[in-house]
Design goal:
2 copies of one chain form a homodimer. In chain A, helix 4 packs across helix 5 (110-123). In chain A, strands 1, 10, 11, 12, 13, 14, 15, 16 and 17 form a 9-stranded mixed sheet that branches. In chain A, 30% of the residues lie in helices and 23% in strands. Chain A contains 9 helices and 17 strands. The first copy, chain A, is α/β, with parallel strands linked by helices. Chain A has helices at residues 15-29, 46-54, 65-73, 88-97, 110-123, 145-156, 179-202, 218-224, 322-326, and strands at 10-14, 35-36, 60-62, 78-81, 102-107, 127-132, 161-167, 209-212, 229-230, 253-263, 266-269, 284-285, 292-295, 300-303, 314-318, 331-336, 339-345. The two termini of chain A are 36 Å apart. In chain A, a hairpin with a 2-residue loop joins strand 10 (253-263) and strand 11.
């Protein structure tokens, strides 16, 4: 079947570009001690996680307990849950899953460390912990060297937990268009991080793992050598948002959408906010300049399209944000030379708990 | 189970407010000839559709073929698909479903009318058609009286189709905060619509049905008497967006979310863009003023919350947009006096095709 015969809106992957992105990431990390631990949130597809691990990824990163459960269920053996797990029932489940896979979780409070320790002791498992260091994103994590040391020592002293190191994720830098600014901000962060690690070492705490980074900072991290793990996710599909960053990855994910109504200077298509994530901006229409895109739930209105569009035509969209778009679909269609060659289930679609 | 013991983020409905909203809508329409045909897109839950029909709704409105299929499958017998169906395979399915339920669809082109007619003839069914008149929203539909007449005659002349009337949906007016402006714009639209209907009558075309309206214009429509059907959807749950409109409906839908990280002047919760639609703005935190909310995929950062929040606490959010939020969840929990009393499946969640 040709891709434009799919029931629309449909999410497709250009296999050739997808594979080239995988190879470009390998190249990025070549000669560096940085290991890839790709983020599950970007594709939520167990089959793709398996491809990434076969391709050399050290394991997976995920954002939610329900994503973690999906990955363990799919037989993934090394998973970082890059988040704080505050709810005791979730902690109890996490501790049980740690019997089946090597599981690492972030912490930023002593009480949370105590809960994790007790749950792991009950399960008879070991939970690996990274202290989250807030390197400027102002989300979770602690901000001072002293707090990091205090939590690290608390983990070291806790039965059934191991202190592996740090997460320092600078998500706020990821999308900076100016490469020099991205580089200089990243370097400033590294200085802070380096100082922190030295401080911890001086106080007898060994830092084995430093996890962080994203698609936007992959190149920079690869040459830097301070981080041990890169959590990039979007590099496989790419967002329209990353368009101006001159990264070595290309858009491989598209939405196939059908034109449903046309008049002078306006074409309306059957994709909208409920099938294409707009939290990081509007999609781009492939091969067609558009003066303005207006979004509603089930429509994008394409104002003044540069190409003549007729009712029933299909168009390809590059979503503004691949991660939020994947979460709106059940299936990804793999396309080779214009033909659908495989269908992958988005097994963690909607796993937001 | 108390609602704050749910696995978070969880979508809950306050049953009392939900029922009061249903009654408020009945009151709105009392004494008017306007019939309620509520929009499925706002809850996507077959069980709630059944409640609405039992409560006097004439049938349902929906946005997508896959929503239509879900409603037919659930035994709903009168459905308006308030959209153009351009794809021939979808048209073929629609024509088959029209054997099982009374189905009405929008049209705005002659070619589309021909396709619908042929498919219905093959199926041995009858498809009811409304011509979509664009009353100012600049989305689908035709804009001149002459075009409406041409399409109406084309439908009347087509085997296996019936011309029932018009859809004129003024979605762009729905959220106007100034009630006088909302009223005057609505009245101006009515004048246009009245003129159109008179023109059609003069040309021998009878208009049985005029469908349109929304939660924001329900009160106005109810006193106006030109529309025959109201497509309101959000009135059951309400959005934070509708907050300033002084409507007779209250927020009945909330997201229960857990605080996962806290520091001075900042609390981070486990709901974000992947569990709460932000396409019409940020959520509101119940009982807590917040200086700024920063959104990411799985977090909202609550800056300077007016209430002391601790890790593990639950908070209630009023989503900015109920329709896009429902599409991110599988289940709705019905809560009475703080207790979960029922769980409703969101049967059309993700039905975007």
């Amino acid at each position: 079947m040709q891709y434009n015969r799919l029931n629309t809106p449909a999410l497709i992957i250009d296999e050739k570009i997808f594979k080239a992105n995988m190879e470009a990431m390998e190249k990025c990390l070549e000669g560096s001690s940085l290991r890839l631990r790709p983020h599950y949130k970007s594709h939520k597809c167990a089959a793709i996680a398996k491809m990434q691990i076969e391709g050399g990824a050290v394991g997976m990163t995920c954002a939610k307990m329900s994503e973690l459960e999906d990955l363990v269920d799919a037989g993934v053996e090394d998973i970082l849950l890059a988040n704080q797990v505050a709810d005791k029932r979730k902690i109890a489940r996490l501790a049980q899953l740690a019997l089946d896979s090597h599981i690492t979780v972030l912490v930023d409070s002593e009480e949370n460390i105590r809960d994790l320790s007790e749950a792991a002791a009950f399960a008879g498992s070991v939970i690996h912990c990274l202290v989250e260091y807030d390197i400027g994103m102002e989300r979770c994590g602690v901000v001072s060297n002293e707090e990091v040391l205090r939590l690290a020592k608390c983990i070291i002293d806790s039965p059934s937990l191991t202190f592996d190191g740090l997460q320092a994720y600078a998500g706020h830098i990821s999308h900076m268009v100016d490469k020099d600014e991205r580089l200089s901000k990243t370097k400033a962060n590294y200085e802070k991080l380096k100082e922190l690690i030295e401080y911890l070492n001086q106080n007898g705490v060994e830092v084995k793992t430093v996890s962080g980074g994203s698609t936007g900072t992959a190149e920079i991290k690869a040459v830097e050598g301070l981080y041990t793990e890169l959590q990039a996710g979007s590099y496989l599909f790419m967002d329209n948002t990353y368009r101006d960053l001159e990264l070595p990855f290309k858009n491989s994910m598209f939405i196939v959408s059908t034109v449903v109504s046309v008049r002078d200077g306006l074409a309306v298509i059957d994709a909208g906010v409920k099938t294409c994530g707009v939290d990081q901006g509007m999609p781009r229409v492939v091969g067609c300049d558009v003066k303005e895109i207006v979004a509603s739930e089930e429509h994008f209105q394409l104002h003044e399209p540069s190409v003549q569009l007729n009712v029933g035509d299909t168009v390809l969209l590059v979503p503004g944000h691949c991660c939020s778009t994947v979460n709106l679909h059940d299936k990804l269609y793999m396309v080779r030379d214009g033909k659908v060659v495989d269908r992958l289930m988005i097994t963690a679609r909607g796993c937001g708990k």
